[in-house]
Amino acid sequence: MERIYLDYNATTPLRPEVRDAMMPYLTEAFGNGSSIHAYGREARTAIDTAREQVAALIGAKSPSEIVFTGSGTEADNHAIKGLTELQKSRGEGNHIITSAVEHHAVLHTCHYLEPRGFEITYLPVDRYGRVSVEQLRNAIRDTTVLISIMHVNNENGTIQPLAEICEIAQEHEIPLHTDAVQSVGKLAMDVQGFGVNLLSLSGHKIYAPKGIGVLYIRRGTRLANLVHGGAQERNRRAGSENVPAIVGLGVAAELAKQEQDTYAQRLAALTHRLREGLDTHIERLHYNGHPDHCAPGTLNVSLENVEGESLILRLDMEGICVSTGSACTSGSMEPSHVLAALGLPPRLAQGTVRFSLGRNTTEAEIDTVIATLPKVIQQMRTLYRGRF
Ligand SMILES: *Cc1c(COP(=O)(O)O)cnc(C)c1O
User: Fold this and answer.
1) What is the rounded CA–CA span in Å between residue 355 and residue 134?
2) CATH 3.40.630.10 for domain 16-256
3) Per-residue pLDDT reduced to its tens digit, 119-152
4) DSSP alpha helix (H) spans, the chain
5) What is the whole-number distance in angstroms between the Cα of residue 147 and the centre of ligand 1?
6) Residues of the chain with CATH 3.40.640.10
7) CATH 3.90.1150.10 holds for 4-10+260-383
8) Rounded to whole angstroms, how far apart are CA atoms 323 and 183?
9) Pairing mode, strands 352-356 and 298-303
10) What residues does CATH 3.90.1150.10 cover in the chain?
11) SS (H, E, C) 208-243
């Protein structure tokens, strides 16, 4: 059976161009970037090129502001722990503002800091997952040392008002971190224009391998290190560089920049097609992404009288691979923290599916989903009648 992959927010396949660029560094060009001989220089040159490619994608002023990390998660940890630890040790304050809908990489890092002398404000969101800039303004204290708000949500695609958030942060001279893992490649990013201090991105969400991420650190933003050891990454992240993955991420970043507009347009058209199809053939459904501020490619939908986990298994049997609220929470029946923050009643949260589209998604695949889903839902609703 042909499989249809609609879970690009969980991970994306390696692009062939990325794999080809990586191959030499998995084979003959195996040098350590810190060695001064020819092998080392070869690796170093490749890392430098990738750093320039990533800097160009997000509009960094200098490639030296790009630090390669082991994942998007590590970048989030480094940004939050590194900045707040230093600020607190200097007596500048211990208050962090974030939102209730952040990825676990941010949220659980904040949970970790709470019993360690930090106070955290988790901003609530509206029914589509957007924070209010007014509430952000009101949450600021003299002791606030960091604002960390994601750009695009991984579960429902909602875009936060990052420009306004950055303005408020700058007004109060508070450093701002944004998890842009789900936005880079789909929405334009200009860290200088926005005035972002710290930004996280991840390779495997933009068709590069897993296990590579980036933390952008604006020049002048001071952080404590997370990983200690050698002098790699200008003394900011120790450990011999993952050269093949870095090279892959560089090429993926360059392609993402070149193709951003057409990619976003294509995703928007496919997402629209899916939504129209669902609207035509399925009743009693609710969309959880923001009607006006949603990144293309993500469609998060709650279906009445359907149990999401079973729906996903049924669709899997049909070869359609989608996800419930969040890949990390599947396997447990608890609605995800994001759906909970939207205020969805548990009855609806239970029946939530996330479609996330990507490069290899075709109209024919969308049409197959539109032809399959109503049948499955009809069966499930008959089966579950009276149980909800
Ligand atoms: C996937 C994801 C991460 C984590 O990135 P990894 O490289 O998988 O650690 C962080 N934030 C968001 C919004 C994500 O979607």
Assistant:
1) 31
2) no
3) 999 999 999 999 999 999 999 999 999 999 999 9
4) 16-26, 38-58, 72-89, 104-113, 133-139, 162-171, 191-194, 232-235, 243-281, 308-317, 337-341, 346-349, 363-384
5) 18
6) 16-256
7) yes
8) 19
9) antiparallel
10) 4-10+260-383
11) CCCCCEEEEECCCCCCCCCCCCCCHHHHCCCCCCCH
Note the pLDDT tens digit of each residue in 237-261.
Answer: 999 999 999 999 999 999 999 999 9
Measured from the CB, is residue 178 less than 6 Å from ligand 1? no
Taking the C-alpha atoms of residue 5 and residue 358, their distance in angstroms, rounded to an integer, is 9
Determine if ligand 1 sits within 6 Å of the CB of residue 155: no
Per-residue model confidence as pLDDT tens digits over 204-230: 999 999 999 999 999 999 999 999 999
- Residue 179 near ligand 1, beta carbon < 6 Å: yes
Pairing of strands 119-123, 95-99: parallel
Whether residue 64 has pLDDT greater than 80:
yes
